[in-house]
Amino acid sequence: MRTCFNTERERERERERERERERERERERERHYDTLQHRHYLLTNSTLAIIILVAPSKGTH
């Protein structure tokens, strides 16, 4: 009986560890997605800034 109880407890601990690992993977995916969004934002703004700065000088030559 005690062995069964320990085994069940161990299984529950393992399930909890797996849930925690899944939560950590989800947090990592969110961090990665946020980083990609930020890089896209910076790239878009940089591109717009270059277009705004370069376009007027192109028209005067």
What's the helix and strand layout?
Elements: H1 2-60
Biased composition (Basic and acidic residues): 7-30
Region (Disordered): 1-30
Core attributes:
61 residues, single chain
Tell me what you see in this structure.
With 61 residues, the chain is mainly α. The chain has one domain. It has one helix and no strands. The longest helix is centred in the middle third of the chain and has 59 residues.
In short:
This protein is mainly α. It has one domain (1-61). The protein is 97% helix and 0% strand.
- Secondary-structure-based class equals mainly alpha
Alpha plus pi helix count: 1
Element string (H = helix, E = strand): H
Task: Work out the radius of gyration.
Answer: 26 Å
Low-pLDDT ranges: none
Coarse shape: rod-shaped
Oligomer: single chain
Total number of domains: 1
Distance between the termini: 90 Å
How many beta-strand segments? Answer: 0
- Strand percentage lies at under 5%
Task: Name the helicity range.
Answer: over 70%
Biggest β-sheet description:
none
Report the mean per-residue pLDDT as an integer.
Answer: 85
Region (Disordered): 1-30
Biased composition (Basic and acidic residues): 7-30
